[in-house]
């Protein structure tokens, strides 16, 4: 490629595409052409950059200037000012909330500079649809090393020494799993890549597929070599169309180049991969259900042992690894187990990708070394809680995980610490909650999800989650009874004990962890009929403070239930019998009045209709101080 | 295309690496072409093209060609500033594509500033 002076790395991950990244791409191409710049400025459509909350976004190289929240109408100005005349455009740069000065360079933005990129080492730096870009970043060098200088046993030894553990949730040592499978006598053997990512709010695996699919292919091929497999499956949920498309392109390229198929690179090793799409059952992320799904059976788990590494797909020994686990393999092989094992904590090595979502300023995908504290993630990378609200809890591990309260914010993030406090690493979802989140409501949300997704094979999981949901619903509706909390705890533990697979064994975690850390909130719901976060509709009321109402008629007009009495000059009154508690009045009441209040656990003060408003006097203008010269 | 052998894979990788040097982020120096309206009118675009051609021909990977606004000396446009690591920046004025090529060869590759076109060494002081 000819020399260029600027390369524009435009994010085309799912988030940015939804925000219009392809329209931005077209606008950029048109403007670059209009100014006669195609020989000087090139445009690369990359996978997910990670800072999804700022999308659509691009990074201008070589200076690495970060531009976010782009709109097509900004593009002509941006191209002319920066890419032609060399004057970076401040108004399109990232400005942290409550700050005035933008931060021009990507490397200076706290969201990025606290991260450590191993798995996502190529994110935003390659076009995922071009194998050349991957090759240029030392792609397939690990495969080359393995096939020319390492025996399968060497590979397993290296991965074991690195301390790599499964990134899908349970954290089983990867090298041990490979060894068990290698030692099985039965052939053929298989490797499956598990990209059935179902946790609400989690999108780590999707992003790896979308930004660096060849890293997964390379890792999976090395796994195949290590265990002695000639065939593998990539199991990905069909709700990920862009990830599937990019993975298929990558597979076609690898096959064309002979990096997959017969006699890879002339070394005599043969290995091939194919994609299998799942159709949306959460339980398919569980390995035995996943196997059943590929086999064309109904996706229900089966009892383990025997583990899939012994008896897996088609009855043959099968290694199932998560996307992120496999994407770690090439870099461990190239840089060595010793280097890798220096990153992280004593028992959790390397890095972990988290999707940081919820009530947090910087939403996005982050990769951090194991052992980082929750505080660093929330306040430094995440930039804190919007609107200066109080941090309440973070939910890790999705519906199988638990809520970690504010008091444990200095907890180092690794497999053991998370388990100890009643949560789990899970695949890496991280949902941040602030003071406006009701913890009973949150656990109800997760139980609703797992209750829907339970396959129904085990009675305790199927009927137990029904019962949990029923009691939680009752509590949030103000019908809680004494003994409910004890019942939830007892049932939760019984479901954990009596379920066959990970879904049932972990589904009570959100309930049990919130009962442990937020018991006072349950008590308030049950005994005082009060929702402390003022979320549960049956326990709250909206009320207009007659002292503050200025009779502006906005809430009267906007109320969809027509439940607000209002006339000019007259204090507005909400008819509690008609009110549907949608909260519109609170949202539309002008902040300078702030007359609408949410009440919970107290009687709604009666207000007569026909009270004249007390006009707020305009504050007298302070007399200007005379300046003494 | 035919399946790759090990040697071909290595060759392909080396070839691909040439195309992505801007992403690696290690630079020994920087050529800044001033592209204010005055610069563009005086022919700065041709100067950028000349530098990029030289860059490609020499296979140099650690030099950044970039642009910036008007340098304030509009009568001497087109202008460029060359900043090599650990040496004071040099400003060149009244450039032509041929002069630009000379600067590339003598200053960037050779390491000696071209006194004949240089307007001055160092930068203006900030406030």
Notable characteristics:
heterodimer; A: Glutaredoxin; Rossmann fold; Ubiquitin-like (UB roll); 5 domains; 17 strands; globular; B: 127 residues; alpha+beta; Glutaredoxin; five-stranded mixed β-sheet; 5 helices
Question: Quick one: biggest sheet of chain A?
Answer: 5 strands, mixed
How many β-strands of chain B, per DSSP? Answer: 5
CATH top level of the largest domain in chain A is Alpha Beta
Ends apart, CA distance between termini of chain A: 67 Å
Main sheet of chain B: which strands, in order across? Answer: 2-1-3-4-5
What's the gyration radius of chain A in Å?
28 Å
In short:
The complex is a heterodimer of chains A (629) and B (127). Chain A is an alpha/beta fold and 629 residues long. Chain A contains 24 helices and 17 strands.
Describe the structure.
Chain A has 629 residues and is α/β, with parallel strands linked by helices. Chain A folds into five domains: 6-109, Glutaredoxin (3-Layer(aba) Sandwich); 131-341, 3-Layer(aba) Sandwich (Rossmann fold), CATH 3.40.50.11540; 351-434, Ubiquitin-like (UB roll); 439-528, NADH-ubiquinone oxidoreductase 51kDa subunit, iron-sulphur binding domain (de novo design (two linked rop proteins), Up-down Bundle), CATH 1.20.1440; 536-629, Alpha-Beta Plaits (2-Layer Sandwich), CATH 3.30.70.20. In chain A, β9 (351-358) and β10 form a beta hairpin. The radius of gyration of chain A is 28 Å and the shape is globular. The model of chain A has no long low-confidence stretch (mean pLDDT 92). By secondary structure, chain B is α+β, with helices and mostly antiparallel strands. Chain B has one domain (25-121): Glutaredoxin, CATH 3.40.30.10. Chain B is built from five helices and five strands. Chain B has helices at 6-18, 21-24, 37-42, 44-58, 97-109; strands at residues 29-34, 63-68, 80-84, 90-92, 118-121. In chain B, strands 2-1-3-4-5 form a five-stranded mixed beta sheet, with helices on one face. The radius of gyration of chain B is 17 Å and the shape is elongated. Classes of the chains: A alpha/beta (629), B alpha+beta (127). Chains A and B meet through β1, α5 and α6 of A and α1, β1, α4 and β2 of B.
């Amino acid at each position: 490629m000819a020399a260029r002076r600027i390369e524009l790395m435009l994010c085309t991950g799912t988030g940015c595409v939804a925000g219009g990244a392809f329209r931005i791409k077209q606008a950029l191409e048109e403007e670059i052409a209009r100014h006669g710049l195609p020989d000087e400025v090139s445009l690369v459509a990359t996978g997910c950059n990670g800072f999804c909350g700022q999308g659509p976004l691009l990074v201008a190289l070589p200076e690495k200037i970060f531009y976010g929240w782009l709109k097509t109408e900004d593009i002509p100005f941006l191209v002319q000012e920066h890419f032609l005349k060399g004057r970076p455009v401040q108004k399109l740069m990232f400005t942290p909330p409550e700050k005035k000065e933008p931060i021009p360079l990507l490397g200076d933005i706290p969201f990025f500079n606290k991260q450590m990129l191993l798995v996502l080492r190529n994110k935003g730096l390659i076009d995922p649809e071009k194998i050349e870009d991957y090759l240029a970043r030392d792609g397939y060098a690990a495969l080359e090393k393995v096939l020319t200088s390492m025996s399968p046993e060497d590979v397993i030894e290296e991965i074991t020494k690195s301390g790599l553990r499964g990134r899908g949730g349970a954290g089983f040592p990867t090298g041990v799993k490979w060894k068990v499978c290698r030692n099985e006598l039965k052939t053929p053997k298989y490797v499956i890549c598990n990209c059935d990512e179902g946790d609400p709010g989690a999108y780590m695996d999707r992003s790896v597929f979308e930004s660096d699919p060849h890293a997964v292919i390379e890792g999976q091929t090395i796994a195949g070599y290590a265990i002695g497999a000639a065939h593998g499956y990539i199991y990905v949920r069909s709700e990920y169309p862009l990830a599937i498309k990019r993975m298929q392109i990558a597979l076609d390229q690898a096959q064309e180049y002979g990096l997959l198929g017969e006699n890879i690179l002339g070394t005599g090793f043969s290995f091939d991969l194919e994609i299998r799409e799942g159709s949306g059952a959460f339980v398919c992320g569980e390995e035995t259900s996943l196997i059943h799904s590929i086999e064309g059976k109904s996706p229900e788990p089966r009892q383990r042992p025997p583990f899939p590494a012994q008896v897996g797909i088609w009855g043959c020994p099968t290694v199932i690894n998560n996307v992120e686990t496999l994407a770690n393999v090439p870099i461990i092989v190239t840089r060595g187990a010793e280097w890798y094992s220096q990153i992280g904590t004593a028992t959790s090595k390397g890095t972990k990708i988290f999707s940081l979502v919820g009530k947090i300023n910087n939403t996005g995908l982050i990769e951090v070394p194991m052992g980082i504290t929750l505080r660093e993630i929330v306040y430094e990378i995440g930039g804190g809680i919007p609107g200066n609200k109080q941090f309440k809890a973070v939910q890790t591990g999705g519906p199988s995980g638990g809520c970690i309260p504010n008091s444990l914010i200095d907890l180092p993030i690794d497999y053991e610490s998370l388990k100890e406090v009643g949560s789990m690493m899970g695949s890496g979802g991280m949902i941040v909650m602030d003071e406006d989140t009701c913890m009973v409501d949150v656990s109800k949300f997760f139980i609703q999800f797992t209750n829907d997704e339970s396959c129904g094979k085990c009675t305790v999981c199927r009927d137990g989650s029904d019962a949990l949901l029923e009691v939680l619903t009752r509590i949030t509706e103000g019908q809680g009874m004494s003994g409910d909390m004890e019942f939830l705890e007892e049932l939760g533990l019984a479901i954990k004990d009596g379920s066959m697979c990970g879904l049932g064994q972990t589904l009570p975690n959100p309930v049990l962890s919130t009962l442990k850390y937020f018991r006072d909130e349950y008590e308030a719901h049950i005994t005082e009929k009060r929702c402390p976060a003022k979320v549960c509709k049956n326990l709250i009321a909206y009320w207009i403070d007659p002292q503050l109402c200025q009779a502006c008629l906005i809430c009267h007009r906007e109320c969809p239930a027509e439940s607000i009495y209002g006339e000019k000059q007259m204090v507005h009154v909400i008819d509690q019998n008609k009110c549907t508690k949608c909260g519109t009045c609170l949202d539309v009441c002008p902040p300078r009045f702030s007359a609408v209040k949410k009440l919970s656990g107290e009687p709604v003060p009666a207000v007569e209709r026909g009270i004249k408003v007390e006009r707020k006097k305009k504050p007298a203008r302070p007399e200007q101080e005379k300046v003494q010269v | 295309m035919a399946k790759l052998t090990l040697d071909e894979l290595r060759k392909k990788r080396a070839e691909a690496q040439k195309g992505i040097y801007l992403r690696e982020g290690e630079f020994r120096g920087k050529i800044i072409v001033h592209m204010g309206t005055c610069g563009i009118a005086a022919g700065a675009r041709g100067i950028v093209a000349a530098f990029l051609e030289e860059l490609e021909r020499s296979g140099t990977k650690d030099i950044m060609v970039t642009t910036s606004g008007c340098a304030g000396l509009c009568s001497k446009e087109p202008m460029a500033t060359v900043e090599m690591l650990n040496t004071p920046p040099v400003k060149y004025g009244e450039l032509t594509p041929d002069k630009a090529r000379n600067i590339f060869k003598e200053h960037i590759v050779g390491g000696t500033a071209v006194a004949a076109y240089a307007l001055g060494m160092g930068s203006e002081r900030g406030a």
